[in-house]
């Protein structure tokens, strides 16, 4: 059984998330879906399409690794939630997210970026109640103003995309940057609630939050959220 590198506990079930990108008049836009407000661990949040690996993704999967199975789930989830048809070859793997222990729905999630295919978006009502093509920076501003609910993986991804001038530029930098790893823990610092990642000096102990050492955290206690990445 695969295990988390930090605490030895079994890794969570596998999921996939897809960041669909298109070039707009003022730069790249991403597709965000608004989850239903009355159910689910991300109720009312605006998120990227995605979800957990289903049994159908495991059919004839002998010889496939976890990432390849997640890629199957990515293609299926996008089709089910938006009606858009992706080809596996269009997906670029960019990150792996492991939520904090105790999260309501703890899934080891592989993030993919992909150019949006042509087609009309058709939402699955049980999965999303609205959608928007939006510039990453605009989404972050709406979140900072309290009018758009985001969860940390979505916020961090939007932040990574905010300064790009085209989809090609974003994908090129992602391919050069390699796979990012976000093993997460909720904690407290002098500035309030925070998400620590495994390469932060305080990942294992809040008491180290002000100690000298690498910083990789998202301060979420008040708006606007503050992302700090200062690694040695």
Number of helices: 4
Mean pLDDT: 93
Strand content: 25-35%
Structural class: alpha+beta
The main sheet comes to: 11 strands, mixed
User: Span from first to last CA?
Assistant: 32 Å
Describe this structure in words.
The chain has helices spanning 66-82, 136-144, 152-161, 167-177, and strands at 14-24, 27-34, 46-47, 50-52, 92-98, 108-115, 130-134, 180-189, 192-197, 215-219, 226-230. It has 232 residues and is an alpha+beta fold. Strand 8 (180-189) and strand 9 (192-197) form a beta hairpin. The longest helix has 17 residues, at 66-82. The chain is globular, with a radius of gyration of 17 Å. The two termini are 32 Å apart. The model is unreliable at 1-8 (pLDDT under 50).
Label this structure with key terms.
30% strand, alpha+beta, 11-stranded mixed β-sheet, 4 helices, disordered N terminus, 232 residues
SSE map:
Layout: E1 14-24, E2 27-34, E3 46-47, E4 50-52, H1 66-82, E5 92-98, E6 108-115, E7 130-134, H2 136-144, H3 152-161, H4 167-177, E8 180-189, E9 192-197, E10 215-219, E11 226-230
Parallel strand pairs: 1-6, 5-8
Antiparallel strand pairs: 1-2, 1-4, 2-3, 2-7, 5-6, 8-9, 9-10, 10-11
């Amino acid at each position: 059984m695969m295990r988390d590198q930090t605490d030895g506990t079994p890794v969570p079930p596998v999921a996939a998330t897809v960041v669909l990108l298109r070039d707009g008049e003022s730069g790249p836009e991403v597709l965000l879906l608004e989850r239903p407000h009355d159910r689910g661990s991300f109720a009312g949040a605006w998120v990227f399409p995605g979800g957990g690996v289903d049994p159908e993704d495991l059919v004839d999967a002998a010889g496939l690794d976890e990432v390849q199975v997640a890629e199957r789930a990515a293609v299926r989830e996008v089709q089910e939630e938006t009606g858009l048809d992706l080809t596996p070859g269009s997906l670029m793997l960019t990150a792996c997210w492991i939520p904090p222990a105790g999260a309501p729905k703890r899934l080891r999630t592989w993030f993919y970026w992909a150019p949006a295919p042509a087609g009309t978006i058709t939402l699955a009502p049980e999965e999303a109640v609205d959608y928007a093509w939006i510039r990453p920076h605009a989404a972050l501003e709406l979140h900072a103003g309290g009018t758009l609910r985001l969860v940390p993986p979505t916020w961090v991804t939007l932040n990574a995309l905010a300064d790009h001038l085209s989809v090609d530029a974003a994908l090129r930098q992602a391919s050069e940057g390699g796979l990012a790893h976000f093993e997460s823990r909720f904690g407290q610092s002098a500035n309030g609630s925070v998400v620590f990642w495994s390469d932060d000096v305080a990942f294992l102990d809040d008491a180290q939050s002000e100690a000298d050492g690498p910083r990789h955290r998202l301060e979420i206690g008040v708006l606007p959220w503050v992302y700090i990445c200062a690694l040695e």
